[in-house]
């Protein structure tokens, strides 16, 4: 109950993935030359000496998109349990419920749209 | 679906929110002025919830119970929303294009609170609570370019999130040890610490989440900051409405808080700490809203007094006090909003000479302040009186003594409001000129009249509350509502 | 005794309703006239009270459910004890209006509103027979009194008003707790019903302490008296008059109405302590008064002394003592009220309350000095005045109870004579400073000083009607008291019980 | 040690880590992450409680699903407010955000 | 013990198979991509190493291994090296629930789709780690873009997947394949053409492939989030990317193209799956070398303004049709 073959399989495959990732890296570490000094560790900016910090201020739109995603992604998550049971459920009530749920999703897209979130570039106050 | 008529008030508010949302999506040209119709809509909501007061029944696999208690609180909440909308309809602190959204969020929060009033299952309670909270988190920073508002917002939501997490953690313990989340079934379980430590720990944590909303002592940090940071109109909402939600849940859960249980004692101790701490801190405040913030911490403590007795009367007293608290605070905030015409934060000395500048406001402020103290003949006194009468003789007499001593303590700063408004003449030049129009005066006057009337003739409201309290315990209400 | 209308309700409600009418008036003079008319009407409305039957029953009873679920009632009624107080209150009102006719210059409307509101709530206090109703009126009285001091008071009014408010409110919160305790234990808020019940000593012990604190602050008794001089000095003269004549009586009335009948055993147990405190109050008040240079402060401290006589009389538990206490209450109301009015009158002329600024009035203001002398004599208990009646009764009661108590009272009376003579002599024959230009009493002042003077002589020379009113009630009170005062006193060790109670509460908290 | 206890210990560790981080973190985003950690701890504890006792397992999973959804919504709002804070204060460090005091 | 081995051995075989399959695919796809690109641009592509340059990918791999593993100054070394590993770890797991043939499957999982969707999200985390830890302007920008994009396209993808699972009532890929057995008319592409199109578009967005390769965008950002990676660090990202491409093509084949079922009954087998997957992969490569890159705001708005509402509407319509 607590630990099933699925868990085991997942761990096994993840370990295989780790092996697959680390193997080449270790090989490369063995084969590769190990030069030091000079500007070898300088951040790569097409050969120029880096200017300023690598942290630029992004447009606030990035954040807004991220926020919308956060909200949507998890909402869609709720549909997964529904999806497996939907065909078995009789009557129209399941549809009504899904309809309500999805119309709220659509409503929120409409809201964002109307609020100009998708207009780019934009300065959101 | 067959009982859709039971949730007419909720549906009405949902409709209101959707209407607001549609309007807020509309183009600038098309947009009618939201303040022109919303007060009527909110008033109708109040009316609808009054009409629906008698309905009873279960919905949604019994997680949603429409009973006297829920209807009582729905009426209270709808009333609060009505007043808040009226209060905010003259605000200057938010730009035009955001107003509709502001009201939408207010409405959404109210909708969540209405749902909360009926929930009788812990997960559902949690959901409804969050529904109510999120919109509120969003409206607090809505104050043009104010640093303080942003700070208040972030403090509120971070503390809120922690409280939520703790509450959920507690919920999981209750699930693990009592195997049910229905309040009705939980009421029959054993809540002694010795027998079931995990359940009691879980319950405490879950209650912690409610205490956060209520701003009870160890969870009160946000309260003064949020009041101070948020705009006056928003503060009026935050100070009153979410507490109704928390109280209704606590009232429902108090059915299994028998006196003598560790949890009950904890509740009592927290209540005592809360009132003492709140009052002591309020003594030294000069910012009006901050003062009210600490005072609401104290009031949260008072409400605990009604809950610990574990009798229908106690719960009814708590419910009645909740109503009183709502009306009193809305009254005071109404006056604050009217006095601070430019939306600034008021200091105590800004009230100087108010009796001359706006006599009706000043008189109403007096009514509000004395109601908050608990002086007769106001609603606040009746509420407090019911609380201590219900709690006396159930093993928590010391709590009652603490309460009355605190009332004496509280006098000092509430009297400050009164003193500045009535006895100080030397208004500084920078003090705002209060809004003295018919709208301001009528609103203040009516709320003050409500405070006084309900203090002189509390019987109808209180009988309703008692009937509601008894219905929680399964005692058939006899002749309630009249 | 049915007059076809609720007499007491009308008495209580009329000033309040009339006060609301003030908002429609503008000119100060009109406001004064209006209020005066209202106060006279109120007097007329009190005429049905003449129909009072001379027995111990509560009369003019009105009883309506207020909050049925909670047992709250709107329950009014008067007996001999409260009737006098009601009459005193109603009679004082026109005097107050008159004495502030020119004294109050600013915010006249609000001032009279406060006066009327105050009268209503004080009447409510004396009439209510339901504990909660009593409490409601008791607290409602605070706000107008606070305003009277804080708005129209002297230079230090902020401090004085706050002190007054906090002291009284702090005391009364415990009273509320006690009220609730009575309800839970006795099952009702109705005072007449509660008077019939026997409570356990342990309960009485705590209830008495809670109530006594509230009343003692109001009276005020010795350690809690400090708000009184401050409030008196700062209050306008009408405020002082009401304060002295009516408000202080609420405390002693509380002792008589609640402590003795409801907690007889505890009252008996605490009586020695109360007597001791009363004696201290008497001597302390007199001694301090003797040293005052401010006339108003002097009278204020003399009040402490006088009220000490009242509480002393009450806790003697014998007929003479309680009678004396009641008379002393009445007298103090009349005499001290009149003294304060006179201080107001002289203050209007000299704008000072110092004795040194108000000397030598005998020559220039003979009428004033006549009244002053009369009231001063009455205040110190000169035979033939009403003060004598009250004081001698208390003396008799004290000697009846215990000779030592009687002896200890004597210095108090002597001190009263000393400070009263001191101030009166200086005022009458001292070296005048600026008094020469002052006008003697005008007609209005004549009226409002003559009325108390009439009562001074009436009670002083023919107190029988008053005795007739109070005696049945006092008899009943003492009989009840004697029957019930022994409740298990010996069986329990009071202090030990108290200690146990406190310890158990502390243990509960942990 | 029963499986339930095991899960609960893990959940408790998550919770405590979150609480500890909350007190230690000096930036708002860091605090948010800590709060999410706490919420996840609660979710784990809930699903374990439902699965490993006689409580209805489906209900527990559903509850956890709700927790996840609401946690996401919460994060959304927190981030939105943090953006507001950052724009008004020019910083998202807790030490800079102290205008409200008595 | 015997039962234990019975469970264990297929799993180990599956894991090894997945490793081989992934390695092979990387080699083949690199070769394909370069050859396709060459031919599309009317040049031969790699031609030197082996016949028609067929050994080129192998040599490339060897070359990568011989390069120095550079860790830039000012970078967070631990996170910097964690990123490529993290991007690689879940790839193999993603192959586990995909049925390549009637018996060619790592493990039949009843929530296979959910498993794939859940673990594929690790890639976003790896990308942002890589960009952030390398402390490079291109890296940070690329990472931000990559995250904004992959998360955005995840939602229509989820909705489309949900559409299928609403129809089938299951999240098990084998089960979904089974429901498409029989002839070609049973493939879900006919029932859900709109969903298929949305899935294809979202597929490009999810894998950061042109025309949605804003995260790498050679001409603007050098190499985006992996600008600073050299040697096998870069190689791992490269392999992972191809891995994700293969996975998503396979999933697409399973969901819409009948999985290992042939167009007519009776000729089912893993070869069909291989064919369909490679057809889709070829399509992706073809698109890359044919279409210009979109602008970033266009990229996001295509998703939020078109794909998402369409996908939602499609789901709603599907739900309605099922009830009808």
UniProtKB/TrEMBL annotation, chain B:
- Residue stretches spanning the membrane: 6-25, 37-59, 71-88, 100-117, 156-176, 196-223, 263-284, 291-309, 315-337, 358-375, 395-415, 436-456
Record GO cellular component, one term: endomembrane system
Q: Which keywords fit this entry according to its UniProt record?
A: Cell inner membrane, Cell membrane, Membrane, NAD, Oxidoreductase, Quinone, Translocase, Transmembrane, Transmembrane helix, Transport, Ubiquinone
Keyword Membrane present in the record's keywords: the answer is yes
Subcellular location per UniProt equals: Cell inner membrane; Endomembrane system; Membrane
Family annotation (InterPro entries): NADH-Q_OxRdtase_suN/2, ND/Mrp_TM
Any one GO biological process: ATP synthesis coupled electron transport
Membrane protein topology class: Multi-pass membrane protein
Its recorded reaction(s) are: a quinone + NADH + 5 H(+)(in) = a quinol + NAD(+) + 4 H(+)(out)
GO function terms (MF aspect)? NADH dehydrogenase (quinone) (non-electrogenic) activity; NADH dehydrogenase (ubiquinone) activity; quinone binding
Q: Looking at the keywords, is Membrane present?
A: yes
* Residues in NADH:quinone oxidoreductase/Mrp antiporter transmembrane domain copies: 121-409
**EC number(s) per entry:** 7.1.1.-
Q: What class of enzyme is it?
A: translocase
Q: How does it assemble?
A: NDH-1 is composed of 14 different subunits. Subunits NuoA, H, J, K, L, M, N constitute the membrane sector of the complex.
**What's the family?**
Belongs to the complex I subunit 2 family.
Known role: NDH-1 shuttles electrons from NADH, via FMN and iron-sulfur (Fe-S) centers, to quinones in the respiratory chain. The immediate electron acceptor for the enzyme in this species is believed to be ubiquinone. Couples the redox reaction to proton translocation (for every two electrons transferred, four hydrogen ions are translocated across the cytoplasmic membrane), and thus conserves the redox energy in a proton gradient.
- HAMAP family with a match to the protein in the record: NDH1_NuoN_1
TrEMBL record, chain C:
- Where located? Endomembrane system; Membrane
Q: Which GO terms describe its molecular function?
A: NADH dehydrogenase (ubiquinone) activity; NADH dehydrogenase activity; ubiquinone binding
Superkingdom of origin: Bacteria
Keyword Transmembrane helix tagged: yes
Which positions fall inside the NADH:quinone oxidoreductase/Mrp antiporter transmembrane domain? 128-410
List the EC numbers from the record. 1.6.99.5
Keyword Glycoprotein part of the UniProt annotation: no
Q: One GO CC annotation, please?
A: membrane
Q: Give the GO terms filed under biological process for this record.
A: ATP synthesis coupled electron transport; electron transport coupled proton transport
Instruction: Write out the similarity annotation.
Output: Belongs to the complex I subunit 4 family.
Q: Which UniProt keywords apply?
A: Membrane, Oxidoreductase, Transmembrane, Transmembrane helix
Q: How does it sit in the membrane?
A: Multi-pass membrane protein
* Pfam families named in the record: Proton_antipo_M (PF00361)
**Membrane-crossing residue ranges in chain numbering:** 6-25, 34-54, 74-98, 110-126, 132-152, 164-185, 205-224, 236-256, 268-291, 298-317, 329-347, 367-384, 404-425, 446-467
Instruction: State what protein this is by name.
Output: NADH-quinone oxidoreductase chain 13
UniProtKB/TrEMBL annotation, chain D:
Q: Where are the transmembrane segments?
A: 6-22, 29-50, 62-86
Chief subcellular location: membrane
A GO biological process held by the record:
ATP synthesis coupled electron transport
Compartments where located? Cell inner membrane; Membrane
Q: Name one GO cellular component term.
A: plasma membrane
Q: What is its EC number?
A: 7.1.1.-
- What InterPro entries does the annotation carry? NADH_UbQ_OxRdtase_chain4L/K, NUOK/Mnh_C1-like
Gene Ontology molecular-function annotations: NADH dehydrogenase (quinone) (non-electrogenic) activity; quinone binding
Report how it sits in the membrane: Multi-pass membrane protein
Reaction equations catalysed: a quinone + NADH + 5 H(+)(in) = a quinol + NAD(+) + 4 H(+)(out)
Q: Name one Pfam family in it.
A: Oxidored_q2
This protein's assembly is summarised as: NDH-1 is composed of 14 different subunits. Subunits NuoA, H, J, K, L, M, N constitute the membrane sector of the complex.
According to its UniProt entry, the function of this protein is described as: NDH-1 shuttles electrons from NADH, via FMN and iron-sulfur (Fe-S) centers, to quinones in the respiratory chain. The immediate electron acceptor for the enzyme in this species is believed to be ubiquinone. Couples the redox reaction to proton translocation (for every two electrons transferred, four hydrogen ions are translocated across the cytoplasmic membrane), and thus conserves the redox energy in a proton gradient.
The cross-references to NCBIfam families, in alphabetical order and at most eight, read: PRK05715.1-2 (NF004320)
Q: Give the similarity note.
A: Belongs to the complex I subunit 4L family.
In Swiss-Prot or TrEMBL terms, this protein is called NADH-quinone oxidoreductase subunit K
Q: Which gene encodes it?
A: nuoK
UniProtKB/TrEMBL annotation, chain E:
| UniProt EC number | 7.1.1.-
Q: Per the UniProt entry, what are the Gene Ontology biological process annotations, in alphabetical order? A: aerobic respiration
- Which ranges does the record mark as transmembrane? 12-32, 77-100, 112-134, 146-167, 187-205, 242-264, 270-291, 303-322
Top class in the EC scheme? translocase
Bilayer disposition of the protein: Multi-pass membrane protein
Keywords from UniProt, A to Z, are: Cell inner membrane, Cell membrane, Membrane, NAD, Oxidoreductase, Quinone, Translocase, Transmembrane, Transmembrane helix, Ubiquinone
Q: Which reaction does it catalyse?
A: a quinone + NADH + 5 H(+)(in) = a quinol + NAD(+) + 4 H(+)(out)
Superkingdom, natural source: Bacteria
Q: Name a single GO cellular component.
A: plasma membrane
Q: Where in the cell is it found?
A: Cell inner membrane; Cell membrane; Membrane
**HAMAP family registered for this protein in UniProt:** NDH1_NuoH
**Family recorded in the similarity comment:** Belongs to the complex I subunit 1 family.
Sum up the protein's function in the record's words.
NDH-1 shuttles electrons from NADH, via FMN and iron-sulfur (Fe-S) centers, to quinones in the respiratory chain. The immediate electron acceptor for the enzyme in this species is believed to be ubiquinone. Couples the redox reaction to proton translocation (for every two electrons transferred, four hydrogen ions are translocated across the cytoplasmic membrane), and thus conserves the redox energy in a proton gradient. This subunit may bind ubiquinone.
Q: What is this protein called?
A: NADH-quinone oxidoreductase subunit H
| The gene coding this protein | nuoH
